[in-house]
Sequence to fold (826 residues):
Amino acid sequence: MMWFDLALGLGLIIAAIGVFRSEDLFRAVVLFVTFGILLALTWLRLQAPDLALAEAAIGAGITGVLLLDTLGVFRQHEQDINPRSSSQLPDISRQWAANVLALIACISAAGLLAWSLFNTLKMPAPHHNLVTVVEANIAYSGVSHGITAVLLNFRSYDTLLEVAVLLVAIVIGIGLRERVTTSANATSDEGQSKLSEPPALLTSLVRLLLPLLLITAIFVLWAGSTRPGGAFQAGALIAAAGVLARLGQIDIAARVTTILRLGLTLGVFIFLIVAVSPMLTGKPFLTYPAGWEGTLILLIEFMLTISIGLILLSLFIQAPRPRIPAPVRNAIPATGPNAETNKGGDQ
Amino acid sequence: MIPLLLIIPLVFALLSVLLPRLPIKAIAIPGLVLQLIASIQLSVHTYKHGASDYALGSWEAPLGIALHANGFTVTLLTLTAFIAIVCAVYALIYLKRYEHEQRYFWPLFWFLLASLNGIWLSGDLFNLYVGLELLTFSAVGMVALTANKASLQAAIRYLFAALLGSLGYLAGVALLYGQYGTLSIQEIALISTSDAPTQVALALMTVGLLMKTAIFPLHYWLPPAHGGALAPVSALLSALVVKASFYILAVLWLQLAPDAISPAAAQVLGALGAGAILWGSWCAFRQPDIKMLVAYSTVAQLGYLMFVFPLSIGTSAAAAELAWQGTVLHLLAHAFAKAAMFLSVGTLVLAIGHQGIKDLAGVSHRVPLALFSFGLSAVSLMGLPPSGGFNAKWLLLQSALSSGQWWWFIFILGGGLLTAAYVFRVFSVSFIEEARHKFAPTHWLLDVSALTLAAAAILLGFVSQWPLTLMELVPGVQS
Fold:
C-alpha cells in the first residue's frame, strides 16, 4: 500500500504542476479535475471518507463543470483561449524570473509546512484531545456519526455561516447574471446558446441517470447521521443531477423566480428558525431541545440539501452567459465574457 | 443578548434575498437601529459586569464555539453598527441612481454586517476563518456590483488576494490545532509555547492576514477595489472590512501566543507600517483621481496600525498600554474619518460628474458641505487637534518616546505631514472660483451622513476616554 500512497502523492504534485504549466486551458481544466479525484483518493487513504466525498463532489465535480462551462463561453466568443499566446503578456525573461521566484516560494513554503508537521507529530500528544471529547458527548448529539455531530451540533455555528457563504456566492452570481442580461439587448431572448439538439444518447442517458442520482442523494443525506455523508455531499449530487438535466435540455430552474429564491434560502432559513427558537425558552442560540436533536438535525440537513443543491446548480445556470453573437458586436479585444458588461455598467 | 448581533443581520440578509421586490430599503433602517441598540446594550452590560462568554448551542468551549464580548469587542460592535447605519442612510439616496445594484447591495450589506459582528465576537480560530470567508465574499460581491470591466477586474484581484490570505491563515490554524488539540483562543493562550511549529503557524497566519489587511507591500489589490467601488461600499470597506483582519492579527500577536513573538519580528511589522505610510502617501499624492487618492490614503493610514507591535512587544507595560490605546483610537478615528471622506467624495463626484482632482474646481462654492466634511475628516487623518486622530497619534508618540524607539516617532509625525501634502492638493483645486463643469444638485441627506461621520471623528478627540475606559476591561491584551 505504501507504493500506492507514494504514487498518489506524486500524482497529486504532477497534476498540480500540470494545471499551472498547461498551455491549453482545456487541458488545464481536465488536469484540475484529475487533481480533485486524486485528492479525494488521498482523503480516502487518510481515512477521511467525508472529506473524500466532498472533494469528489464539489472540488472535482461541480468546480470542474463550472470551469468547463466557462471555457465553453470563451469558445463561443471565438476568442483565443490560449492565454500564453496573447500579446499582453510581459516578455519571456521577466516571466521566467517570476516562474523561478514562484517555484522557490512554493518549495520553501512546502518545506516549512512539512517540517513543522513532522515536528508537531514528534511532540507529545496535545493537552486537549477533542476526539475523545466528541466520543464522550456523541450520545447527547442526536446522531451517531462524529463528523455530523460536530458539523450540525457541536460546531453548528460554523456550518450556519458556511451555508451563508454559499448564499452570498449565489447572490453575487444572480446579480452579475442579471446585470449582463439587462445591459444586453433585451430582445436577444436570453440567448441560451442553443448549440444544437442534444444527442439522443445523452438524452436517454440523462433520463436514466437522473432518478439514480436523486436516490443516491437521498441515501447520502440519510446516511449522514450514522456514517459518512450529509447535506453538502447530497446537495452536490442534486446539483450534478440538475447540471445533467440541463445538458439534456430539460430545463428546471433557469429563471430567478420567487420560488427559486425560496429554495435557495430555505436551508439557512430553517436552520436559523431552529437555532433561534430555543432562545424563547431561555436556552442559548443553536441549542437543540433535548430529545429532538436527531429529528431536527435531519430536518435541517434535508432543507440544507435542497438549498445547497439549488445553489450549486444555480451557480452553473446563473453564470453570466453571453448573448448570441450578434452582428452589432464589433470585435471587442480579448477580455473574456465580461467585455460586453461595460455598456450598462459605467456611471 | 450576544447572539442578537448575529441573528439580526442574518435575518435581514435572508429577507433581502427572499423578497427583493419588498421595500428592503425601508426595513433596513429599523433593522440597523435594532442592531445599534443591541450593541449599545451589550456595551453597557460589559461596562457594568465585565467581559462575558457565550457558549453557542450550550456546548462549552473546546467542544463547541464560544462567543466572547470584552471592552474591545463591544467598542468594535458599536462602531460597526454606527457606521453601518450612516452608510445605509447614504446608500438609500445614493443608490437610487443604481436601480439594479441596490437590489443586490442590501443582501450583501447585511451579510457583511453579520460577518463583521461574527468576527468581533468569535473566540475560536476556525470560526474566525469562516467569518473571514463570509466577509471576503460579501465585500468582493459589493466591489463587483456595478459589473463593468474595471470593477470586475478589481473584484477578481481582490478575491484572489483575499483567498491567498485565507489559505495562509487556514494552514496556520491547522498547525495550531495539530499542536494544541483545540481551536479555542482562550484555551490556546493558556498553554501556548514559543516553539518553532507555533512560530511557523503564526508566520503563515500573519502573512495571510497582512494580505487581507492590505499592509504594504501586499496592498496592491486595495486601491482599485476601494477606489472603484460605489461610494457607500468604499466607505464600508475602508472603515470596517480591512480592520477585521487587523483585529485577528492583534489577537494572535498580543493575546494568543505573546511568548512566541520575538521583538525582532515586531520591528519587521513596524517597518512594513512605516513603508505603508511612505508609499501610500506618495501614491496618494500622485493620483489624478480623487477616489484613488482616498484609497491610497487608506493604504497609508493602515500603516499606523502596525506600530502597535513594535511599541508593545518587548517594551515596558506602560509603553505597551499607551501603544494599545493609541492604536484603538487610531482604528476608531480612521474608521470615522475614512468613511466620511469616501462619502463626501462620493457626493462631490455625484455633483460634478467627474472624478479627476482637476475637475474639483469650484466645489467650495457649489458643494460646500461635502467639502467641509472632507476637510473635517482630513483634520483627523492628519492628526491635527482637536480630533480622534490627534489623540491617537499623541498616544503613539508618547509610547514611542517612553519605550525609547525614536525611529517610530519620526514616521508617526512625518505621516501627518505627508497626509497634509496630499489632502491639500484637493483644497488647492477646490477653492478655485471658476468651475469647470456644471453642478448637479445633490440630496441633503448625503451631506448630513458624511458630516455626521466627520463630526464623529472630531468628537472622538473630546471623548477618547470612553472607549479607553471600556478597553481597560480587556484582560491580557494590554501587556
